[in-house]
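Progress report, Aim 2. The chain analyzed during this reporting quarter is listed below.
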Amino acid sequence: MASKGLERLKRLRNRFARLRHPKHFRMAQVAIKTDCGAAMCFIGHTLVAEGYKMRLRKQWQAFRGCDAARSDYDFISPAGRRSREPYRAAQRLLGLSWREAEDLFQDFRVKTIPQAIKKLDALIAAKEQR
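Predicted structure tokens for the chain:
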């Protein structure tokens, strides 16, 4: 039986496969306001896919654990609480070890949606082999 984290990784991969606009993915920002909505990294997409709501901020801030990442949005959990550490929340939801999270969330060589899908496919395959 697959773990919840593995099932969530597969759903995240499918979410990326359905993304139609390349501007909806950007690794350097957790979530940034664009002319076509919001561009998000793996962290932002994970949280939204798991029911978190996004609330536009008056000013951006960097999150702990992902210092270079900018976010124009707060993430509000399904329970109604603002997530203070989106990096950790996404890590927990996906069932990632510290090293796996660092490899996925901080691989700034990933620039395109196809590259993101390839990255998720490799992580899913590695987790399925365990």
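The longest strand covers residues 53-63. Helices lie at 4-18, 42-49, 86-94, 98-105, 113-128. These observations will guide the mutagenesis work planned for the next reporting period.
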